[in-house]
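Field log, afternoon session.

UNIT: design team B
ACTIVITY: writing a sequence onto a fixed backbone
BACKBONE:
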């Protein structure tokens, strides 16, 4: 029987080579609003909403200006090519999997099925616009992000979760672990059971879903699961079409879904940014593997990538085996790692 893989992406600095939130504000010349809001301690999603509103009302920036900024967002050709190959593999395949015809469900090597999802703290309009601009919307099964819409010529952004999500690791607007758990439960209910999940991320917000996948650690209170699952899930799922509308609310369970904790799962954690600064997810996972569980230890930047990856693997998986946390820093390096893992040839 063919295997089924979920390839789950963070967006900023994982799929694209920028932070789309700050990039767009820079392009719009709205940095002063951003700086003022940061100084005032405004919560991130609310800050983006306010800055975009001010860019429209005070600077006269139009939807076309925002769109132009999004089209110019740095997106490495190797990443674009990887997703295009996944999309092409999907359209070339004769369906056959689970009744076939799922957009975003694509075929990898060895008759395996690969579903691609994006879970991001940016917003739905940014992600949809960028994916569509590069012809990548058909490659993605689901997009989960803060819901955005045009109102009075301004893009307005709302939090993904409309109720407290009870996760101690995640920002108030979005717990990616719960979004991923909910996605896995929905897919399982529809008969799509994943054998493994590959997760790509860089930031603090990617720790919660990574912990869920690596060792089935759930960092939110089960009682809050239902509230969060029924939050903005339907509104926040832009996707490429059908799946978002079919998103079911309130399918809560405190039991981690199928592949969570599986030894086949991998977390592709970005190790450093182009400016050399270390990425939070990598530092957190490495410290956790070292037994510290505290990301405040001072020696963050000295690990060499391959050795550190092996350490994380050894500590994270009894019995050894392949590294479950895979470090990467350059997009072309990640594209090669994933092509190999997914047997794209
Ligand atoms: Zn969380």
């Amino acid at each position: 029987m063919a295997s089924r893989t979920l390839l789950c992406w963070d967006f900023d600095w994982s799929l694209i080579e920028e932070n789309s939130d700050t990039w767009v504000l820079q392009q719009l010349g709205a940095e002063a609003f951003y700086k003022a809001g940061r100084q005032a301690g405004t919560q991130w999603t609310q800050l983006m909403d306010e800055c975009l509103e001010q860019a429209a009302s005070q600077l006269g920036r139009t939807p076309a200006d925002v769109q132009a900024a999004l089209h110019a967002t740095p997106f490495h050709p190797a990443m674009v090519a990887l997703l295009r190959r996944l999309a092409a593999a999907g359209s070339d395949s004769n369906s056959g999997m689970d009744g076939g015809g799922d957009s975003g469900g694509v075929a990898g090597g060895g008759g395996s099925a690969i579903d691609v999802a994006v879970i991001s703290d940016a917003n739905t309009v940014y992600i949809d616009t960028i994916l569509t601009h590069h012809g990548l919307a058909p490659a993605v099964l689901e997009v989960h992000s803060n819901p955005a819409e045009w109102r009075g010529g301004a893009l307005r952004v709302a939090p993904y979760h409309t109720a407290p999500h009870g996760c101690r690791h995640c920002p108030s607007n979005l717990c990616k672990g719960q979004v991923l758990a909910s996605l896995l439960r929905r897919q399982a209910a529809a008969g799509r059971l994943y054998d493994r999940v590959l997760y790509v991320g860089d930031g603090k917000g990617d720790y919660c879903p990574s912990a869920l996948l690596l060792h089935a650690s759930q960092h939110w209170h089960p009682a809050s699961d239902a509230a969060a699952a029924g939050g903005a899930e339907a509104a926040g799922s832009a996707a490429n079409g059908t799946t978002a509308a079919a998103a079911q609310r309130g399918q809560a369970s405190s039991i981690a879904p199928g592949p969570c904790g599986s030894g086949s799962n991998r977390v592709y954690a970005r190790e450093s940014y182009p400016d050399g600064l270390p990425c939070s997810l990598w530092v957190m996972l490495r410290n956790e593997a070292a037994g510290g569980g505290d990301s405040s230890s001072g020696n963050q930047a000295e690990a060499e990538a391959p050795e550190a990856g092996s350490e994380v693997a050894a500590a994270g998986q009894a019995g050894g085996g392949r590294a479950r946390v895979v470090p990467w820093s350059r997009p072309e390096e990640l594209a090669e790692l994933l092509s190999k893992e997914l047997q794209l040839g």
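LOG NOTE: Residues 222 and 254 are 5 Å apart (CA to CA).
NEXT ACTIVITY: expression trials, pending approval
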